[in-house]
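Sequence in, structure out. First:
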Amino acid sequence: MQTVLLYLSLLFSGAMIQAQNTVEVSITNFGSNDGNVYISLHDSEANFLEKGMVSKKSEINKQKANFTFSELPDGTYAVSCFHDEDNNGKMNMIMGMIPLEDYGTSNNAPARFGPPKWNDAKFEVSNGEIVKLDIKL
């Protein structure tokens, strides 16, 4: 019985001390300080540019905004953001396809003939890493 309890305690303590990661995001090149910036952290290609694992909103100060996502498990992630300049809570589009408001993604993934791709925007974190991303709108 003691062996089982020792094994279980080691198993749970190992899971608890697993390193947690941090992603620090700096967004620059806003056209103005009007409105807010929305940012999402995505953990899979299936939800990239749709629903973020974690989403945040912030005011813009001096055409810049900074965000921190902490206590992230090891894994592959991507970040997307947009400048909601008119403060209506959504990205304005022409005919539902062409963005009217500035946007960006991790790795400054390009948007060629459509939205940015997961493979261009993804990055990995592991072992208690702090990843710093600079996104230019």
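Second:
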Amino acid sequence: MDNISRRNVLAASVAGGLFAAATAAEAQSPNQIPQPSRAPGVGGTDPGPRNLMRDRQNPDILNPPSTDHGTLPNLRFSFSDSHVRQESGGWTRQITERELGISRNIAGVNMRLNAGGVRELHWHKEAEWAYMLYGSARITAIDAQGRYFIDDVGIGDLWYFPGGIPHSIQGLGPDGCEFLLVFDSGGFDEDSTFLLSDWFKHTPNDVLGKNFGVAASLFGHTPDPSELYIFKAPVPGPLSSDQISGAQPVPQTFSHRMLAQEPIRTKSGTVRITDSSNFPASKTIAAALVEIAPGGLRELHWHPNTDEWQYYIEGQGRMGVFASAGQARTFDYQAGDVGYVPYAMGHYVENTGDTPLRFLEMFKSSYYADLSLNQWLALTPPKLVEAHLKLDATVMSALQKEKHPIVPF
């Protein structure tokens, strides 16, 4: 015990036995412990208390690049730090402007439904856009003209339900599903949706009887809404068995196969863009699925129409954000993290791992738009660019008139 430093005692008390053992081992090799010093004579050591695991996950917060400056708000939050609501049919957690204060335009929900698990029939004021992360699900809805929709969706598929449209989600076999939900308001709250069972529980039985043309005594048996929010049910049969005979389907599908799209390709990655031009139902959310090879870069760019909300699916990356007035910050991300870029701020995303980096870019907009720094300079008179930046002739000749969202290297 005498050989354990105060720092390691504090770390052990916070993280438990396994982490304490790892920390003690690191104490024998101090160079392996990250310190808030990016160069000799800059910064210093951190004797603790500290969270080494967090420091390792966020190296560009602990040691920001020398180009970082100013006091930009936090642009990162992890679903791992979100409260998990557990129910009989699965679980859910959310990131809204309450968790990520800058996120005023978009909120996100990460949901898991076990096989047969049902997200109760419901609706909400906000539009709902979704990306399937795992497994498969059956989704249903109707529109205001009384036309019905039903489809099975799998990994890489999307759906979009406009605000006010009632719908449901059910996990299929063999292991249900997991998906990301995106809502076109940062103030959305997953716990404040309009639930079918809640309405029944708060409507007099005689009114229900009059509405459905049956005896009032047939009502009053609806389970409490807390039992049904995400509940277990039998796995449904084939899609054909759930079709509504004699009913008219919606003319415009609420689902889309994003992975079936032919991507924009470079040697270093791909980008698939989905907005109302190829998924007409999606009126308020546009998105891009980005994959970057190790060492690759989502080029320096900005978006001229709205904020960007990101969800990291796989790999490790870092994002540098330029906010004008000499302000810039760098953030690190990994699977399950959410990133945010306020409207019109310049940024890049770099793959810092040794596996592909995959993430979603989402926008509260009917259309996707970005502006490339490289392309802008290439399409500006060279003398004017040289007068601004004093660039070498080699740099000027390397400027690209065609946009390459993933820098080809």
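Remark: The radius of gyration is 25 Å.
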